[in-house]
Amino acid sequence: MMDHNQIYELLPAYALGILDDEEASVVSEHLASCNKCSARFSAYQNTVELLSFGAPRVNPPAALKKKLMHKIQPKILMNDKIKRPAKRSTWGAFWHKFSPVWAIASLAIISALTFSNLVQWQTTEKLQDETAQGMLILKMKGTTRAPNADGTLVIGHNRLRGVLVASDLPVPDGDYQYQLWLIKNGKPKDGGVFSVTENGYAVVEVASPVSLLNFQSFGVTLEPAGGSLSPKGQTFMVGYL
Amino acid sequence: MNLKVNYSNKNDEALIRLSANDDPEALSELYDRYKALVFSLAINIVGSHETAEDITLDVFTRVWQKADTYQPGKATVKRWISTIARYRSIDVLRRRNARLDTSNPRWSDFSPDTLPARENPEEVMELALIRRKVTEALLKLPEEQKKPLALAYFMGYSHRQIAEILNKPLGTIKTRIRLAIHKLQQELNVIEDMNDRSKSK
Fold first, then answer.
1. How many beta-carbon contacts under 8 Å exist across A and B?
2. Residues 5-34 of B with CB under 8 A from A
3. How close, in Å, is residue A81 to chain B by CA atoms?
4. Percentages of chain B per state (helix, strand, coil), in multiples of 5
5. Which of A8, A169, B138, B153 could be stapled to A200 by a disulfide with Cβ–Cβ 3.0 to 4.6 Å?
6. Is residue A30 part of a domain?
7. Total domain count, chain A
8. Which of A6, A27, A52, A222 to mutate to test the interface with B (most CBs of B within 10 A)?
9. Are residues A30 and A88 in the same domain?
């Protein structure tokens, strides 16, 4: 058990962040109830902060800022033009609960239709692609603009097709639609434009010429009706591989 | 309709709040304000420009991702960012298992020519004044205090580790670090207020 003086002597080291866990814990607890030590600690913290001025100040290369802004790309700001959905209806709750199942079922239906077409075309190679590994499920989450929004992206066997089931997205004005983006190295590619029902739900078929697993993240933004060539609107859902 | 917002007039805490609400312009302004602080700190810990660039990118990405966790009452935004930078740099250095250079070139190398150009000449002079005061205060420390302090500040080593490195008793190291910080705190007391006025708006 440390006394007041012992703790007082540890304050500089605590400000430097170099105490071991046990000592740090004791000091932290003491500071919560000792005004004198808190004031002294604050002064030591200011001192440690000023040590950074002891080093010559150098700017990073200008290109670094561009890298940073690109890295945070999925979050884009625009004026708010949407209505928030009303409370989730019973029907909406049903869809929400079963959305992963529905997504898989949708993909199965799409796959079956594709299969039947392939049989008609008698294309052996495509049949083999369709029987590759199992489906993958990616959860997408609503951003601060749509905290209740939820998305399930089911990626099919051949990784080129998928189904997005979205729920609780705010219902936009008629001049706007949602757009899915497939993002790799900060560069978004169009994944499809869609509208939601009055309850904020949508089922969207996703197709890509390259494997969907090549992309690092997926985002849903609000765009002018018909979509945009690149994301310009606010982001409502994101998911990461 | 988009209204053009003047971010340079906003204080640091407002910018953090805006960043937490996904405003990239707010992060851009924070980056402009603290890029030199973060980058310089990183270089002085890891010794490599390239690594310091990666660290700078990591730090501001983290600021962006964790803006909603910032607590105004706990620390200034500047301290929060510089702490993230220091710990990230120490973390990178430890993973590289770099050997420590104990000659403290970082703190003894002062030159007005290394100050970054800014639009406001008053700010340049104020920064130069602060840096001169800090450097002078550091130079006044006896070597036996400066060495363990450098190991603590730049490497994040604990008392025990520093005692091992310098082959000194643990109690001696604790005392020397405590005396070093206390002496610096007394020497720098005058300029703490100046620094606060010049930074956060």
1. 156
2. 21-25, 27-28, 31-32
3. 10
4. 75, 0, 25
5. A169
6. yes
7. 2
8. A52
9. no
Domain that holds residue A102: 78-240
pLDDT digits (tens, 9 = 90+) for A151-182: 989 888 888 888 999 998 999 887 889 999 99
* CATH code of domain B8-98: 1.10.1740.10
Question: Which fold does the domain B103-201 belong to in CATH?
Answer: Arc Repressor Mutant, subunit A (1.10.10)
Q: Considering the domain boundaries, does residue A64 fall inside one? A: no
Q: pTM for the complete prediction?
A: 0.54
**Residue ranges of domains in chain B:** 8-98, 103-201
From the list B143, B140, B137, the residue with the least C-alpha distance to B176 is B143
Cα separations in angstroms, B28 against A36, B21, B47, B84, B172: 39, 14, 26, 17, 45
For residues B108 and B139, the answer to whether their CB atoms sit within 8 Å is yes
Inter-chain touch B174–A69, beta carbons under 8 Å: no
CB contact under 8 A, B82 and A52: yes
What CA–CA distance (Å, rounded) separates A126 from A119? 10
Do the chains contact at B114 and A19, CB–CB below 8 Å?
Answer: no
Name the token pair of B39: 């980058």
Q: What is the pLDDT of residue B104?
A: 41
By Cβ distance, the residue of A9, A51, A52 closest to B178 is: A9
Q: What is the pLDDT of residues A214-224, one digit of tens each?
A: 888 899 999 98
Residue A152 CA to residue A135 CA, distance in Å, equals 12
Binned at pLDDT 50, 70 and 90, residue A122 comes out as very low
Q: What is the ipTM of this complex?
A: 0.76
CATH label of the domain that carries residue A104: 2.60.40
In this predicted model, what pLDDT tens digit does every residue of A179-206 receive, in sequence order?
Answer: 999 988 778 889 999 999 888 889 888 9
B1 contacts A17? CB cut-off 8 A? no
Residue B191 has, within 13 A of its CA and on its CB side, a CA count of: 23
Whether residue A108 sits in one domain with residue A14: no
